[in-house]
Amino acid sequence: MVISNTIESDSRALLDYTYASRYDRTDLPRFKIAEHPIPKEAAYQIINDELMLDANPRLDLASFVTTWMEPECDKLIMAAINKNYVDMYQYPVTTELQDRCVNMIANLFNAPLEDSKSAVGVGTIGSSEAIMLAGLAFKRRWQNKMRAASKPCDKPNIVAGANVQICWKKFANYFEVELKEVKLSEGYYVMDPKKAVEMVDENTICVAAILGSTLNGEFEDIKLLNDLLVAKNEQTRWDTPIHVDAASGGFIAPFLYPGLEWDFRLPLVKSINVSGHKYGLVYPGIGWVIWRSNEDLPEELIFEINYLGTKQRTFTLNFSKGSSQIIAQYYQLIRLGLKGYKRIMENCKVNAEHLKKGLENTQCFNIVSKDNGVPLVAFSLKNHSQHNEFQISNMLRGFGWSVPAYTMPPDAQRITVLRVVIREDFSRTLADQLVNDIVKVLQDLGILPSVPEENGVANTTQVAGVC
Ligand SMILES: *Cc1c(COP(=O)(O)O)cnc(C)c1O
């Protein structure tokens, strides 16, 4: 019997110990799919090994996105990994869980619901998709209104602070809406409501306010924005609405600052987005958009499909997607309850304050973040004569930490900050270790004098005025 060489070598390969196989010393395909399969053990081991060079997500202090969930939830996630969310006929319970999440989040944001089931909203891949949908609803409503009044509707605009997250720039670009940015200034890094309202004109489809600026975590003054806009609307007879981008703050404000009015309690707030995968405490791939009422979501944007076995109404950009994140969101909402979320957010806030104190003790930094906002610490070097924040960021990588440095948008470009986002899984021990490592970096750069370590812990008590 003649066996071809390839078959013989492939079957031998199946017996090989992975690191003794030829796969361990041949290049893996990068540009073209290879002709032949490779054993699953080798594929697993080689990819797993290459991924070791990625950073450790838990030490990525740049990201707001969840990096830890309970093992019980991991089980639910894996059990649903093969369910396509769009097959609602097949998976009616999953659809029901998404509806429950929409209702719960709408309630959390004080939507004026007639009964507990009337919330209008949808789960998305993240806040970016949620913002595209909210933006499209505003654009369509505005166009309908302008057409009805026989006015031109080809030059829509959105007013927002120059601190907007990139997804607003994408929305403006992809859907051809002009983004009118309110400039920042040194020492004030969020949208000034007064300036924003001055920029509103008849073509403004909405003002986008941010609850928790990506740059420094600060909440914009949405109550003041609402009041100024109500007055302007009365005077001009326009009805310019507000969208709140609560990507990171939507799961913080209700627990830490319940008295703060930023949501549907304000009459001009017509839609809100939140990232389930940020402080909603779910792994990446989930966001939510909630509308105040049916009126705020033009019916013509909703598609009805029936070829999957039942009539379904959908308003999303994607068709197929996973179900796991929706299930995981429902897990967190029922597992934690209001008290559970509150405690986690309080821990994050306390740990942010602790880190801030540690950084202040070095006397080398100005703190740029605010105490009420998203639990993060943004800070700048006091003295830039010898070194800058990018060097510190690079050197911290050597310790395993990822702490980004970036410059502020116009007109505050002169300011560079380092930012540490405090997530649920960033404990006080890690905060202390981070301060310790930052002090070592400052010493290596010669910004701080080297003081002998005490039992391996950098001495952070410094002489005033060194920086
Ligand atoms: C993170 C963030 C976004 C984008 O959210 P994704 O869920 O990552 O798509 C939008 N706006 C703000 C303020 C954010 O912080």
Automatic annotation (TrEMBL):
It catalyses: L-glutamate + H(+) = 4-aminobutanoate + CO2. InterPro entries: Glutamate_decarboxylase, PyrdxlP-dep_de-COase, PyrdxlP-dep_Trfase, PyrdxlP-dep_Trfase_major. It is an enzyme of class 4 (lyase). Keywords: Calmodulin-binding, Decarboxylase, Lyase, Pyridoxal phosphate. It comes from the Eukaryota. Its cofactor is pyridoxal 5'-phosphate. Its EC number is 4.1.1.15. The keyword Protein biosynthesis does not apply. Pfam families: Pyridoxal_deC. The keyword DNA damage does not apply. PANTHER family: GLUTAMATE DECARBOXYLASE. Belongs to the group II decarboxylase family. NCBIfam families: Glu-decarb-GAD. This is Glutamate decarboxylase. It comes from Tanacetum coccineum.
